[in-house]
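Entry:
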Amino acid sequence: MDHIQLKCFISVARTLSFSEAARRNYVSQSTVSRYIRDLEKEFGVKLFERTRHEVELTNEGKLLLPYAQDVIDTLGKATSVVNQLNNGSGGRLRLAYDATSVDYPTRCLKSFTKKYPNIAIEMLRLSGSEVSTAVNSSEYDFFFMLRDMLPDNNSLESELSSKDKLSLLVPKRFPVVGNSVDASELKNSKFILLSEAESPILYMEIMDIFRTFHFSPRSVIEFDDVSSVFMAVDAGMGVSVLPSQLIDSYSRANVKKLEFSGIETGLNYVIAWRKNNSNPAAHLFLNTVKKNMTLTDEDEYVL
């Protein structure tokens, strides 16, 4: 049995005419008759009652018809999906990301939209409290986040996508010699931080720096968005600690980036997606993602 046989069966069933079925399927009438005989032989039943002037569906034929139509419809949808996957013609992709995931998703989107400009992109920034709910739903195709924010969920797949370090964001006039600073020299500085609610893992890493150098900041001001942190540092309200790539992604004339001396900081980022995602645009995006990974073979692994 193949789909052409089923299409011819459906045509005969709908028109009750072998000649009309032959015309609709661009084959000869004898071919249609052969296809119907082959189906009847395969099912072991008669599908049509035929006389010289009439064609009628048997009860078995009436039973088969909706299933045959479902097979053809499903095949048509599958063909459409495969074609869409192959050429990226249309579709929609939904992405979610945490406040610190900017550089890597941007590079992926830049490559993806250049190759597939007709696929619509929706994006949502997730706060720390929203991550678990969003990831456990099927609302989004991909999630970019710090690895330690990824919940334990067997329905998810994820890959380590990039690594980063923490750097110090300071006003341009910050008194320092060179491009690095010892964290212990910051004991009297005011800190402008992304709030714990917005990025709990980042906040924890920053607190670990303070503990390592045995000091508590003189004052801490927290904001729920990165733009406000940059604005506050730009205005001279204090200094901040942020992922290095995140600092690089913001261009402001009155701030600069310093590296920490005497301490190593590390951040691991992942991209996560649901195992059962059948969105063809998601498959295209995943291929783009893997091409943009900045890790060595030793670093890259599936969680």
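The chain has three domains: 3-86, 92-163+268-291, 166-261.
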